[in-house]
Structure formats: structure tokens, C-alpha cells
Amino acid sequence: MYRLSRLKYVFPIGLFVCLFLDGALSHVWAPLFFSYPYSMVSELVLLWLVLSYFFQDDIEIPLIPFAIAAGAVYDLYFSGILGLYIFLYPLIVEITKILSRYFSSSFLSMIMIFFVDIVIFETFNYWAYYLVDVTNVGFGDYLIYTLAPTLALNLIYFVILFWPIRAIYRWALNDGQI
């Protein structure tokens, strides 16, 4: 009963905040995130979508439509054209659903699934940009200079934000009681 829960407000607000923070953190921390030859990509939207899947309980948030909308906003705001994110965000939600069938909902399982999601998301992004000659970085350099730092940053986000996001979901699901 998504319509009747507080999640109908909490989830979209959290998604918007994550969209905003992805851009804001990348701008504010640009000297750290994009220090040649390394580059770290903040993926708070993916974190919010993945954790939302695990924390929604029986509410069943319409994650795919929200993922498509977030991808469209992300693409239009950051690149000016509809591109990869409109397809990759829903793909990651589906991959999370598939992987979660085979693992328990423990912290370690969730962080492992998020790890796999980030690897798939960033690698598809790299391949698409490589195919259209937006990037000419070799795959080995991509793994070392982009994927590894991106994984480190986003796994730190996961560890830091897991419990606050879980508390927000518990509050939204339990009539305001944590």
C-alpha cells in the first residue's frame, strides 16, 4: 500500500536529495574526485534505489518508474540529452531484484549486491562511451583509475549511510516511531 504510507513522500524526497547531492558533491569535491589520472563517480542515486528495494518491506515502491524518471532527470541535467542513465537505473533495480533472490537481506549481502550493481553500472557506462568514442581509455586503465576509486567512494557511502537510511525507512513504515 504505497499510496497510504509515508514512503510516498519520503522516497521521492530522498531520491531528489540524492540526485542533488550527486551533482553537488561532484562539484564541491571535484579536486578530490577528479584528480588526474583518477576519477571517482558519486552514485548516491543508485545507493538510494538499492537500499529502497531492501527496506521497502511489503509496501512495494514503484522503483522502475522512479528509476526511469531519475535517469531522465540525471541525463537532461548533467548532459542535456537523454542517454544512458534512463536505461541503466532501471536495469540496476532489476539486477538488484534478481540478485536478492539468491542472498539473505543481511548487511554483507546488501553491500555485495551494491558492489556488483556499481561494477555493472559503471562498466556499461564505460562501454557505451567507448563505443561512441567519447572516451578512449583502455579497459585496464578504466579498471584501475575509474572503477576502483568509484567502488571505494560508493562503498564508503554505503557503510556511512546504511543505518541512517534504514532509520528513515523504519520511521516511514512504522507510523513515525523509530
TrEMBL record:
InterPro entries: Cell_shape_determining_MreD. One of its GO terms (biological process) is regulation of cell shape. GO terms for cellular component: plasma membrane. Keywords: Cell membrane, Cell shape, Membrane, Transmembrane, Transmembrane helix. The chain crosses the membrane at residues 67-87, 107-130, 142-165. This is Rod shape-determining protein MreD. It is a multi-pass membrane protein. The keyword Transmembrane helix applies. It comes from Limosilactobacillus agrestis. It is found in: Cell membrane. Coiled coil: none annotated. Belongs to the MreD family.
